[in-house]
Amino acid sequence: MAYQPDENRYDKINYRRCGNSGVKLPSISLGLWHNFGETDDYENCRNILHTAFDNGITHFDLANNYGPPPGAAEMTFGKIFKQDFKPLRDELIISSKAGYQMWDGPYGDWGSKKYLVASLDQSLKRMGLDYVDIFYHHRPDPETPLEETMSALDLIVRQGKALYVGLSNYKPHEAKKAIDMLRRLGTPCLIIQPRYSMFDRWVEDGLLDVLEEEKVGCITFSSLAQGLLTNKYLHGIPEDSRVGRHLTNGAITQSQITEEVLNKVKQLNEIAAKRNQTLAQMALAWVLKDNRITSVILGASKTKQVIEGIEASKNVEFSKEELDKIDFILHQ
Ligand code: NDP
C-alpha cells in the first residue's frame, strides 16, 4: 500500500536553525549507520523511516560505508525512497559522507578530490537521488592538503550534487581552518558532526566555541553511547541489542559494559525517573539543552525507540541541581 505520511507530522517535533544558514533541522534526526544493512529486516527498516517521518523527523543521515556491507544502508534507503518517499523529496534533508575506506586501491579512502567526487556519484546511484542535501567529509585526512579536500566539497556543490557541505570528526583547530577555507571558496560550511554524549564530552573543550563563533551548526552522533546510556543493559545483555548481536564495524562490545559504567548508568537512570523521562530520553535531552546543538542523530533498531527519542525533545530544560548531580556521577 502507498505510504501516506501523518498529516500532523510538523506539529510533533521542534526545528532548530542550523548556524546562520537558511536550514532548520528537527531536534532529533535519524541515522542509518546500523540496522539498515543487508541482513536487517526490510519491513522493519521501512517502518522505522515511516515512524520517523510521521513524527516530523525530516533528516536522514547516511554515509557511503554504512551497512554491512559498506553501501548497503544507502541501497536499503534507496529502495524505501523509491517506494515511499520520492514524492516527498522536497520535505527531506538527506546526507551522505565519504572519508573512510570504501573501495580497494589508493582512491577509495581519506580526502582526495578523486575519492570524494567518485564516492558521492556512487552514493547518489545507490540512493536513486539527483543530489544530497548535505555532503560531509567524514574524517580529517592527515596527508591530503586541506585545500584539496575543501575544494572538492566546493566543486561538488557547484556541480549540483550537494546543496550544503559539512565536516565530521574534525578537532577544533582543524574545523576552524576548514570553515575559513570553505567560506573563502564561497561554499560555507553548514554543519559539523561530532560524537557527543554524557560519556564523551570532548566537544566542550573548544569545538562548540568555534562553532558558536563561526555560526556553524552542530549535529551530534552516538549521544546514547550506542545504547549504553539507556536502561537496556542494566539487567544483562538482551539478545536483540547492539551488544547482543555481536555487530562489527565500530559497534560497542560487551567489554565496554563494565561495573563502573553500569554503576553510573544506574544512578543516571534514577535522575531520569525523577524527571519523568527514561534514561534514553534524558541522555538526548542533556545534549539538546545546549542551544549550540542543532540536532541529535538518533540510531534506532525499533520504531518504539524513535518514538521514545522524539518525546525527549519536549523536555530539554535541566535545573542546576540536576546538572550538578549528573556531573558528580559522571566524574565518579
Ligand atoms: P546512538 O547512541 O543513538 O545509539 C543507537 C542505538 O541505541 C540504537 O541502534 C539502539 O540499539 C539503541 N537505542 C536507541 N534508542 C533506544 C531506547 N530508547 N532504548 C534502548 N535502546 C535504544 O547512536 P549511533 O551510535 O547509532 O549513531 C547514530 C547515528 O549517528 C548513526 O546512525 C550515524 O548516522 C551517525 N554516526 C556518525 C558517525 C560519524 O563518524 N560521523 C559515527 C557514528 C554514528 P539496539 O536496540 O540495537 O541495542
Q: Assign the CATH architecture.
A: Alpha-Beta Barrel
CATH first level: which class? Answer: Alpha Beta
Strand content: 5-15%
**Major β-sheet strand ordering:** 3-4-5-6-7-8-9-10
Q: Output the CATH topology.
A: TIM Barrel
Largest sheet: 8 strands, parallel, barrel
Q: Which structural class best describes the helix and strand composition? A: alpha/beta
Give me the strand/helix succession. EEEHEHEHEHEHEHEHHEHH
Tertiary shape: globular
Termini separation: 53 Å
Write a short abstract of this structure.
The protein is of the alpha/beta class. The protein has helices at 42-54, 72-85, 113-127, 146-158, 172-185, 207-214, 259-274, 279-288, 303-312, 320-330, and strands spanning 15-17, 24-26, 28-31, 59-61, 93-98, 132-137, 162-168, 189-193, 217-220, 295-299. It is built from ten helices and ten strands.
Overview of this protein structure:
- Strand 7, helix 5 and strand 8 form a beta-alpha-beta unit.
- The chain has one domain: TIM Barrel, CATH 3.20.20.100.
- The radius of gyration is 19 Å and the shape is globular.
- The protein contains 10 helices and 10 strands.
- The chain is an alpha/beta fold and 332 residues long.
- The model has no long low-confidence stretch (mean pLDDT 97).
- The strands form 2 sheets. The chain has an 8-stranded parallel β-barrel with strand order 3-4-5-6-7-8-9-10, surrounded by 7 helices. The protein has a two-stranded antiparallel sheet with strand order 1-2.
- The N and C termini lie far apart (53 Å).
- NADPH dihydro-nicotinamide-adenine-dinucleotide phosphate (NDP) binds next to strand 10 and helix 9.
